[in-house]
Amino acid sequence: MTSILKIIGIIFALLMAYSTFLNYKKNEFSKIQFLFWEIVWVCLLLVVLFTEIATMAVRSIGFLRLMDFLTVAGFLVITFLSFHNHYSINKVKNKLEKLVREDALKIIDNKK
Length: 112
What we know:
Blueprint: H1 2-25, H2 31-49, H3 51-60, H4 66-111
Helix pairs in contact: 1-2
């Protein structure tokens, strides 16, 4: 069973790295975004390939199992991404509101 999970993890990491590369080539990702995501996928690949070493490293920082660490790390990432999305949405909302106000003022000035 473990080998099947490892194969699934390897295929997933490789497909995501390839998808990231394609998005970068389509100019949908900046160079920094591309490097960030490639590092994420390489780290995932290393954790899948070297589970025993990752488990020992995780135990040295106080977690009993690798899965416990990955769960906590996942919650932290989701919290960070939620905050970042909230910040980005408010930033875009404020820019849009400013543009609409400026456009409305231009229309009013043109009618006078």
